[in-house]
């Protein structure tokens, strides 16, 4: 009865990654996925060994009478084994965790694209900081969300994208589930940054993952990953004065966000519901 609502596809997707989402859309999400799979497999091996020893002791040394069985004390080989083995397991897991963390936090000296992420109650602004992304007024091209518009952040695939994060009020969190990664956005002079390379085209929902106030659930955005050629054409259209929807439409993309349904985007509508 408990499994009657599950399909084989749902069960397969759940156990395929041991509860972890699919491999993600970036180089770093793949690395984190591999760490998760390796850690779970190691835990399963240890668990099976422990369960096996428990059931073996229950069966082999079950009570067979009133006579007290032979008592064994000071078994140095066994004590040495259960002291050293956990240390070795922890050391291996620590090594792979530390190297994966260093890889995820690694930032190259010359990223291909630079984007500033500005969070505020309760929306997002994305500013393109590269020299070729300046509008007719000489200012950086930007996209800003409003109460009835979900901002779309356009990035090229197979190019390194460096994000600079800043908050204008409270702590927010930049979260794209398909990146298998999120990074807090702090107010004040604290600047958080990270770098990713998206390797799969598509539209990916983004959200704020830090409870930041009444309309926290409204802080949706979309990452639109396009080919490098489309990205260059998009930036060129923006520098010529086109809006984000018009520039997206000019390169053959949907002009508005497509991944935030069924969350209402209008704050008044959200409050009324």
TrEMBL record:
The chain crosses the membrane at residues 35-59, 80-98. The keyword Electron transport applies. Residues 257-273 have a biased composition (Polar residues). SUPFAM superfamilies: Cupredoxins (SSF49503), Cytochrome c oxidase subunit II-like, transmembrane region (SSF81464). InterPro entries: CcO_II, CcO_II-like_C, Copper_CuA, Cupredoxin, Cyt_c_oxidase_su2, Cyt_c_oxidase_su2_TM_dom, Cyt_c_oxidase_su2_TM_sf. It is found in: Membrane. The keyword Translocase applies. Gene3D superfamilies: 1.10.287.90, Cupredoxins - blue copper proteins. Residues 254-273 are annotated as: Disordered. Residues 110-237 form the Cytochrome oxidase subunit II copper A binding domain. Its EC number is 7.1.1.9. Belongs to the cytochrome c oxidase subunit 2 family. This is cytochrome-c oxidase. It comes from Planosporangium thailandense.
